[in-house]
Amino acid sequence: MRTRVKICGITRVEDVKHVVEAGADAIGFVFYPPSPRSVNARQAQQLVAHIPAYVQVVGLFVNANATEIAQVLNVVALDILQFHGDETPAECQAIAKQTQRRWYKAIQVKPDLDLINEIQRYQQAGASAILLDAWHPDLKGGTGAQFDWSQFPKLDIPLILAGGLSPDNIQTAIETTQAYAVDVSGGVESAKGIKDQQRIERFMQGVHCGSAK
Asked: Is domain 4-212 in CATH 3.20.20.70, yes or no?
């Protein structure tokens, strides 16, 4: 099975079209104003109008409450929620129940973190997957940094690899981790929030090559 691909931080209609044409499985929108890739609900609504069926729409939130997420959902047809902040398993579970959406949690791989235990905490709360990202003391993703892929575990929940992925390393990343899915943003950009069609196409080629091994 080919490794699934989400391309995140989309801000332009032309980038939606390039991502869809390249064959990505999911498109991510960042609802976190401090991010240079952030969009508001109305902007996302206009972009989602160009996403066909069978391509999932993911909303990335950082420490947002259920009311804030529901306000976005009233405008944007999101398929799944990505919690990318300090949300506890109980908070994720409660928001998912209130919004009636599936969800997954991004975990930053800190040097002293009991990663297996952390993953299992969110799995028991109902996560559909877990995203593993590089740790940064201040930033919540989008750092361009990567963690030690040899730490990537093998568990009975889909694991998504993120952090520092690019067309140049994606094949090796997949071969090393055997991740269920990969999530890229900055690695396929010409500038923050501006995707590059050629880099997207090269990234997808690397995914196919890595998945074939």
From this structure: yes
Catalytic residue among 15, 92, 133, 183: 133
**8 a catalytic residue:** yes
Q: Which of 8, 15, 92, 183 is catalytic?
A: 8
Report the C-alpha gap between 44 and 39 in whole angstroms.
Answer: 6
Domain regions of the chain by residue span: 4-212
Residue 213 neighbours by CB distance under 10 Å: 8
Q: pLDDT tens for residues 153-175?
A: 999 999 999 999 999 999 999 99
Q: Which two tokens stand for residue 80?
A: 């799944």
Does pTM surpass 0.90? yes
Is 92 one of the annotated active-site residues of the chain? Answer: no
Q: For the chain, percent helix, then strand, then coil, each to nearest 5?
A: 35, 25, 40
